[in-house]
TrEMBL record:
Family designation: Belongs to the CTC1 family.
Organism of provenance: Heterocephalus glaber (Naked mole rat)
InterPro entries: CTC1 (IPR029156), CTC1-like (IPR042617)
Lineage: Eukaryota, Metazoa, Chordata, Craniata, Vertebrata
GO cellular component, one term: CST complex
Primary site of residence: nucleus
Keyword set, alphabetical order: Chromosome, DNA-binding, Nucleus, Telomere
Source superkingdom: Eukaryota
Subcellular location: Chromosome, Telomere; Nucleus
Name of the protein in question: CST complex subunit CTC1
GO biological process: positive regulation of DNA replication; telomere maintenance via telomere lengthening
Pfam family, one: CTC1
One Gene Ontology molecular-function label: telomeric DNA binding
Length: 1240
């Protein structure tokens, strides 16, 4: 058992042991804290000596202690010391180290961690607050730049230490702070933006700086300062007695202009107004110009609605301003108005007279009245808000309070621009409010002119957004629009959006940003050139220059923002992909099989005919069809695979067809790589549809369309476009978004190489053929590739490169040798196809210096037979790296006799059956384009046969021979391998066909076919407006005049008799007769049991001058029989049972032939109807020639025919019967006035 005394002893020893351990720990912590403070103090002393202490003075302990005391005072004032007297976690940072930083940061010595978190939450959920770092900033606040020259002051503020100088922004400036050393407790640093050409970051000083040394307080003047108030000061300006005397002005600051830089001088204007001390004076304002460099910093210290005194002012006349104004002098001072320190200066005499009011005489001209009704007046107001978004920083466009747009472009806001980001609070004085400006802008816009002031009220806690280096070029371009083009706000806002569209279209993969936006020596940028046509129309360039003095000082106020007119968006610049997509969307939205094949025509077509008629159609969108008008824009490139021209931007490429003036083709290859802008163009969408509609009844069901594909391209004239050359250095190498086949080809010749001139005499079509690249190539790996060949004549020998030009031609080995040559283009060299045209002189340029390269005979051909057929002695394959240049025709020797006119075959030779010259050339207008059966294909294919049939396209054209009133029609067929069809072969287009093969059908109709030697040149595009020209009304005898007769016409005639009539019900799949709706074809099962009706009738008509055999088909039979639609439908339904009803009417007195039983009701009805006056009646017949003659003279001479007139026989000459196809039959309005005897 332990005694009490021993227990007390044990407790005493334990307490003593515990007390000794705690004291040791406390002493250790104090020792560590002392060491940390000592190290911090030593580092601070070193920094102060290096960065703050003047270089010409020895370091003093007083300076170091004052800085440390200042730090302690701020640190301890916020209760953040936590037992530490110094912010040991903070370190001093020099200006030099700040400038070397690449990331923004902030430091708040006077804020705790929780206070920083609260402050950072102001950035919002989507914001990115500035990261906090524990740094101490110490420096001198000054308005002097690094060179310390007074004249270099421009109103900017800087923080300077021994290591450098850094620009800064401060909310509230006290002029007494300048030149003193401060510790900045709360600040943020932002590195230079990419658009900042000075490459200088800046400081944002959040709170008031803390002086290291106490600031001296300026004593009050011993005597009151004599001052003039605004009312009297404005009167002094009108009199010359006191103009040379310096005066002091006092009043309330009512207006403050921004800093204006013009004519290498910086200034601002402040206006003093009524002061509470100026009792009994009328309300007046007096402007004061401050332009002394050392006084420009006043702009940062002035606050509206405060009372100020300005001393040492004098009266001056500003150049370009008709009135005198008050200006400061080098001895002028700015101070706050103290009522006890001023005294109003008493003036006597005429100074007390009131200033006469100036009235402007309004003009009543009609133009001004109309402008007044269209224009609106902006509203001047004061506004305070927060920037919530940066819409376009280089253009000075921001979002305020998520409701308004703010435009600062009409001011020179270079200093304010670097602090503008979401979270900045602004106070706007005398800002213009514009509503409903249009041009794509939907929200109201606040815009400040040179009279208004933009005051910074708080900085943003957010980091700056992502910036790009090209913004400096954009800013320069936008300044050009404001200060040189002097655009109004609505047009300026539209120009901003248009330039953004253009940059997105072309940069950076097609053009570099600086090339597109930067102004070159004396030339505007490409971006401004693209906008120039629209800007010239809406705002023609003005010779007047924006006068800053008048804008700030003139009363009444006049500035570019005062009046505005709502702008209808003039143009838009869609990407090529968007343009093609919109065109396809509208084309397929308008695709309606019922509209393409309207009733009653479609009701008689079989499935094959129906689907073939729907296989191809086209849709045209003109630029005027878009709202707003869309402008076509892209880089012109040549396809290395398809041989066509294409426009390219970042979204892709679009094929195009260009025509020069006077329907001439494009021949100058220097257009490759140029920027093309076209306001007038045609967007063509060719629709190719694969369908299996059984009959016309299913045309409204889209399930029968198996596949559809569109070919989209644009066509326009060079005269309607703006061509802007782009240097080769501005173009990038091919990227994934720019495939190699659309890579721009530089038309400029190589610096080293050789060339040779040739005259192109003939060009063949572009087709797919298999070519052997070398003798060792395997035919198994060959693929069809586009290729073409041209024939021409060498003009002189080879020429070598000499400097920037070409040397003289080398002498030829054999001067008497034929210089005809065959040039073969395949592979990438097909890109020259669009520029090569007969009759032009070209220079073939190669970078190689191989001797005799152009003189190799037949080296590119495996056989001499093609050369013999072409009449050439040599063949040359154009290599991929070779280029072509267009040369002047002056280089052509006179004996060659260049014929630039397109070859034309004579009309007799074209329509005759003579085959001595089977290749013909002519110009024609395309009337129709349809998909048809191949010329040598079987008429029917077994079901399940997957063998692809040869494609075939039929063009029906109207020839355009000279001195021909009614051009004849002709069919042209195009089959494999001539696909795809060349661009521009559309109905309504004028086209020249060269070396088509002429053929004559078994029915003696002339038609033409494409061959490998065929050359097609589009002369004009389809007209924008089609005028429906009525068919000419003629006598039938006029058709016997041959070529002078129309192919289609109208005649008033009489039906003499009916020759034959046939009604059929046929299978829609195989065209076999279908009695009772069942197909009768043996050995095959048709996929459908659908039948359609078909009808035909042959009539003999005459009009007193000639007679004709007229064939009417399908619904025209009902017109010929005079049946109403319901009656005709009933007749066809009656013929469904037998499937075929045919009546043959022979000569009078003979028996009628019929395929049906004579006693059947339908046969009796039709026989009676065809011999009744209901059919044998006067009609107005619209027709076309059923048989196109092979020559322009009648095939048969007139023949003698005997007639019986009562008892007297008559013998007369009769012209041969004409064969016509019915287009329509109408009833005459006046049945008595028909034929040739109507005028007798």
């Amino acid at each position: 058992m332990t005694s009490p005394s021993s227990s007390r002893e044990h407790s005493r020893r334990s307490f003593a042991r515990f007390t000794g351990t705690g004291l040791w720990r406390i002493m250790t912590d104090c020792r560590v804290q002392a060491l940390s403070e000592q190290a911090w103090l030593e580092a601070a002393q070193t920094f102060i000596q290096e960065a703050v202490c003047p270089a010409d003075k020895e370091p003093t302990a007083h300076l170091t202690q004052s800085v440390i005391d200042c730090v302690k005072r701020i640190w301890c004032s916020q209760g953040r010391n936590q037992g530490f007297g110094l912010p040991l976690s903070y370190s001093f940072v020099s200006v030099q180290k700040l400038r070397s930083r690449h990331h923004p940061c902030c430091s708040h010595l006077s804020r705790s961690c929780s206070a920083y978190e609260t402050w950072a939450q102001e950035a919002g959920p989507n914001g990115n607050p500035l990261p906090q770092e524990q740094l101490l900033l110490l420096g001198t606040l000054t308005d002097l730049s690094q060179d310390l020259e007074q004249e270099c002051r421009d109103g900017s503020l800087f923080v300077r230490d021994n290591t450098g100088i850094l620009g800064c922004e401060l909310i509230d400036l006290d002029l007494s702070w300048l030149g003193h050393l401060f510790l900045f407790p709360s600040w943020s640093y932002l590195p230079p933006a990419k658009w900042n050409s000075s490459r200088e970051g800046h400081l944002e000083l959040w709170g008031a700086p803390v002086p290291v040394f106490p600031l001296a307080i300026s004593p009050d003047p011993l005597t009151p300062i004599p001052v003039l108030y605004p009312e009297i000061a404005s009167r002094v300006l009108r009199h010359s007695k006191l103009r040379e005397v310096q005066s002091n002005l006092a009043g309330k600051l009512v207006r403050l202009s921004p800093l204006v830089r013009s004519q290498q001088k910086t200034y601002f204007v402040l206006s003093l107004g009524e002061s509470p001390l100026a009792v009994g004076h009328a309300v007046s304002q007096v402007p004061i110009i401050v332009q002394i460099p050392a006084q420009l910093v006043w702009h940062r210290a002035l606050r509206p609605s405060e009372d100020y005194v300005l001393t040492g002012l004098r009266v001056s006349r500003i150049h370009g301003h008709r009135y005198r104004v008050w200006t400061t002098t080098p001895s002028s001072n700015l101070m706050l108005l103290n009522p006890e320190c001023v005294q109003e200066l008493e003036l006597e005499g005429p100074f007390l007279e009131a200033e006469p009011k100036r009235f402007s005489v309004p003009s009543n001209s009609p133009d001004q009245k109309e402008q007044k009704t269209l224009s609106r007046n902006s509203t001047l107001l004061h506004y305070r808000g927060t920037v919530t978004g940066v819409l376009n920083e280089p253009a000075g466009l921001y979002e305020l309070d998520r409701q308004l747009e703010l435009c600062l472009a009409y001011q020179q806001f270079h200093g304010l621009r670097r602090v503008m980001r979401p979270g900045v609070c602004l106070e706007l004085q005398d800002v213009h409010l514009l509503q409903s400006v249009g041009g794509g802008t939907t929200r109201p816009v606040l815009a400040s002119c040179l009279r208004g002031a933009i005051l910074l009220r708080s900085f943003s806690c957010q980091k700056p957004g992502t910036q790009s280096s090209h913004q400096v070029h954009e800013a320069t371009l936008y300044e050009q629009l404001i200060w040189k083009r002097q655009l109004g706000l609505p047009l300026y806002l539209w120009a901003i959006r248009a330039l953004v569209e253009l940059v997105c279209k072309l940069c950076p993969h097609v053009l570099r940003h600086h090339q597109f936006l930067q102004h070159s020596s004396g030339n505007p940028s490409l971006g401004l050139q693209l906008l120039a046509p629209a800007l010239d129309d809406l705002a023609p360039p003005s010779s007047t220059i924006r006068n800053a003095h008048n804008e700030i000082l003139e009363e009444p106020h006049h500035c570019p923002l005062q009046k505005y007119t709502r702008l209808q968006t003039p143009y838009s610049f869609p990407t090529l992909a968007m343009l093609a997509e919109e065109g396809q969307h509208k084309a397929w939205a308008s695709f309606d099989p019922k509209a393409l094949l309207p009733l009653p025509e479609a009701a008689y077509l079989t499935s094959c005919q129906l689907n073939r008629r729907l296989a191809w159609s086209w849709f045209c969108l003109r630029s005027s069809a878009f709202h707003p008008t869309q402008v076509l824009l892209g880089i012109l490139v040549a396809s290395c695979c398809k041989g066509c021209l294409r426009l390219r931007d970042q979204s892709g490429s679009l094929s195009c067809l260009l025509l020069a003036e006077d329907s001439q083709p494009v021949t100058d290859s220097r257009l490759i790589g140029c920027l093309v802008r076209a306001e007038r163009f045609q967007l063509i969408i060719e629709r190719n549809v694969k369908s299996n509609f059984p009959s016309w009844k299913e045309l409204g069901m889209g399930d029968f369309i198996q596949k559809r594909k569109a070919r989209v391209y644009v066509q326009f004239f060079l005269a309607d476009s703006l061509i802007l050359p782009v240097p080769r250095s501005a173009l990038h190498a091919p990227t994934p978004s720019a495939p190699p086949q659309t890579e721009p080809t530089c038309p400029e010749g190589p610096h080293v190489g050789q060339s040779r001139l040739f005259l192109l005499s003939h060009k063949e079509t572009l087709i797919k053929l298999n070519f052997c690249a070398s003798s060792r190539a395997s035919a198994e790996v060959l693929k069809p590739t586009f290729s073409f060949q041209v024939s021409g004549i060498w003009l002189g020998g080879t020429q070598r490169k000499e400097g920037t030009g070409w040397g003289p031609p080398e002498p030829l080995k054999d001067e008497n040798k034929d210089q005809k040559v065959l040039l073969l283009f395949l592979g990438s060299s097909v890109r020259w196809f669009a520029f090569l045209h007969p009759g032009q002189v070209y220079r073939l340029v190669t970078p190689h210096s191989t001797p005799m390269l152009f003189e190799a005979e037949g080296s590119s051909c495996t056989s001499q037979r093609p050369l013999e057929l072409a009449g050439c002695v040599s063949c040359l394959t154009v290599q991929d790296e070779w280029t072509l240049e267009l040369e002047s025709s002056q280089d052509v020797p006179e004996e060659l006799g260049v014929h630039r006119a397109l070859p034309e075959s004579s009309l007799p030779n074209l329509l005759s059956g003579n085959f001595t010259d089977s290749l013909v050339s002519f110009s024609a207008e395309i009337l129709s384009r349809t998909v048809c059966e191949p010329l040598l294909a079987p008429c029917w294919t077994k079901p399940g046969n997957t063998r692809a049939l040869r494609r075939c396209v039929k063009l029906t054209v109207a020839l355009e021979p000279a001195n021909c009133e009614f051009p004849p029609h002709l069919d042209i067929y195009m089959e494999e391998p001539h696909f795809p069809v060349p661009l521009g072969l559309l109905p309504g287009a004028q086209v020249h066909f060269s070396q088509l093969e002429k053929r004559v059908s078994r029915s003696h109709n002339v038609y033409c076919c494409f061959q490998s030697s065929t050359y097609v040149q589009v002369l004009s595009f389809p007209p924008e407006t089609t005028v429906s020209v009525p068919l000419p009304h003629i006598y039938l005898a006029e058709l016997l005049r041959g070529g002078r007769a129309p192919f289609r016409a109208t005649a008033s005639c009489h039906v003499v008799s009916v020759f034959s009539l046939q009604l059929l019900w046929v299978c829609t799949h195989c065209s076999s007769v279908c009695p009772q709706g069942r197909c009768t074809r043996q050995g095959s099962t048709c996929p459908t049991q659908t039948s359609v009706s078909q009808a035909s009738i042959r009539l003999l008509v005459e009009d007193g001058t000639a007679e004709a055999m007229v064939t009417c088909k399908n619904h025209h039979v009902a017109e010929a029989l005079g049946l109403h639609p319901s009656e005709w439908t009933l007749v066809l339904e009656c013929a469904r049972g037998p499937g075929r009803v045919a009546l043959q009417f022979t000569q009078p007195g003979a028996q009628m032939e019929s395929s049906a039983k004579m006693g059947e009701p339908l046969t009796l009805f039709l026989r009676t109807l065809c011999t009744s006056p209901s059919v044998l009646r006067p009609i107005v017949l619209s027709f076309e020639l059923e048989k196109r003659p092979c020559n322009i003279t009648p095939l048969e001479p007139p023949r003698l025919q005997r007639f019986q007139c009562g008892e007297l026989p008559l013998l007369t000459k009769m012209n041969p019967r004409l064969r016509l196809a019915c287009l329509s039959i109408q009833e005459p309005e006046h049945p008595g006035s028909l034929g040739a005897f109507a005028s007798c």
